[in-house]
Design a protein that fits this description.
single chain, 361 residues, alpha/beta, Peroxisomal Thiolase, Chain A, domain 1, 5-stranded mixed sheet, 11 helices, 13 strands, binds coenzyme A
Length: 361
């Protein structure tokens, strides 16, 4: 069976920052509470749509792979906060990037979306249907944030990350994976009034934002990310000792720590960047992968374990043997336009829709 390798990687984080100290001015919270409960210090608030973040991340990943937009034959966008339902966000990204040879589709498995996308993309290439897959995780989650709810508005942020997947004859690439879903628990993390079931004139704006049972998510995330990791490692014929780096979904540093503890994995082998970006859902894993490579945390031949958990409820993990190249082949000059508003101004539509945060009321 043909191997499938990640040959390019890139990220696009919007420049506007919302720090814990900024949040202290909006809701009844503190930097200390947020830091100790979640590990998050700041997050980004995007001035552009998710598709524009995706296009820049995608162009950067293509340059890193030494590919052009014409080489992409499948473009997949993992997102749960995309620009629109029709057209798909992937179609909009195709237009922005001009990847005209690519079939384009969205994939929504919430925070597990990127790991799901890695599995789908890998099998599309293994099956011989596509040669070069561009997989992007992108989110503009702040659109869904109700700043009258301090338990959710502190957690999420915006951003995008991307990888290029290609068939390879090297003895490297995707070794094994495991995916799962428990739809019976979908209500544990939801945007209640959305989609065709939603009441278009719902009187309570709070129903249009992210709603969740925090402790239930916490418990299930730790259990499923560790169980799934062990299943994927077993399928790969590897043991935990073989893992050089775990790149987990960045939802909460305590979830990450508890998962590593449950697995018995040394914390030094876990990549964490949640302090800078919060939970960017489908974007956390490709952004963390890009930064792990930039930080020199991945060496040729390393075994990298990806693990994620999210709305659905979904989870997934993937065991990957890194190939010989850990540096990009090229660099893209793609950039976002500069923001024309400050962070608070970008949040104004949220305040108008959901209500003023208590400290501004
Ligand atoms: C949300 C989360 C940080 C809350 O932490 P927790 O330790 O479970 O806290 P609790 O919900 O038990 O709340 C404890 C107290 O803190 C308060 N609190 C909640 N948010 C707060 C905030 N931002 N600042 C200060 N206090 C806050 C609660 O009101 C509660 O107060 P009370 O004891 O007076 O009722 C945590 O449950 C979590 O991260 N869960 C996972 C969420 C997640 O990752 N979702 C995405 C999955 S992909």
């Amino acid at each position: 069976m043909r191997n499938v390798e990640i040959t390019g990687w890139g990220k696009c984080m919007p420049p506007n920052v919302l720090s814990n100290h900024d949040l202290e001015q909006l809701v009844d919270t503190s930097d200390d509470w947020i830091t100790t409960r979640t590990g998050i210090k700041e997050r980004r608030i995007s001035h552009v749509e998710a598709s524009e973040l995706a296009a820049v991340a995608g162009l950067r990943a293509l340059a890193a792979a030494g590919k052009t937009v014409d080489d992409v034959d499948l473009l997949m966008v993992a997102t749960c906060s995309g620009d629109s339902i029709i057209p798909s966000t992937a179609s909009v990204v195709q237009k922005r990037m001009e990847t005209w040879n690519a079939a384009a589709m969205d994939l929504n498995a919430a925070c597990s979306g990127f790991v799901y996308g890695l599995v789908v993309g890998t099998n599309m290439i293994r099956g011989g249907t596509y040669q070069t897959v561009l997989l992007v995780g992108t989110e503009k989650l702040h659109h869904l944030l109700d700043f009258t709810d301090r338990s959710t508005c502190i957690l999420f942020g915006d951003g995008a990350g991307a990888v290029v997947l290609e068939g390879s004859d090297e003895s490297a690439g995707v070794l094994a994976s495991d995916l799962g879903t428990d739809g019976s628990a979908g209500h544990v993390l939801e945007v209640p009034v959305d989609g065709t079931m939603g009441d278009r004139g719902h009187p309570d704006p709070a129903m249009c934002g992210i709603s969740m049972e925090g402790q239930e998510i916490f418990r299930r995330a730790v259990t499923k990310m560790s169980e799934s990791s062990l299943i994927a490692l077993d399928k790969a014929g590897l043991r935990l000792d073989d893992v050089d780096l775990l790149i987990p979904h960045q939802a909460n540093s305590r979830i990450i720590d508890a998962t590593a503890r449950r697995l018995g994995l040394d914390g030094a082998k876990v990549y964490v960047n949640i302090q800078s970006y919060g939970n960017t859902s489908a974007a956390t894993v490709p952004v963390a992968l890009t930064e792990a490579l930039e930080d020199g945390r991945i060496s040729p031949g390393d075994i990298v374990l990806f693990a994620a958990f999210g709305g659905g409820l979904t989870w997934g993990s993937l065991v990957y043997k890194w190939g010989s190249r850990v540096t990009p082949l090229g660099k893209s000059d793609a950039e976002l336009p500069p923001p024309d508003r400050n962070t608070l101004e970008l949040l104004r539509p949220n305040f108008d829709f959901f209500g003023l945060p208590e400290r501004m009321a």
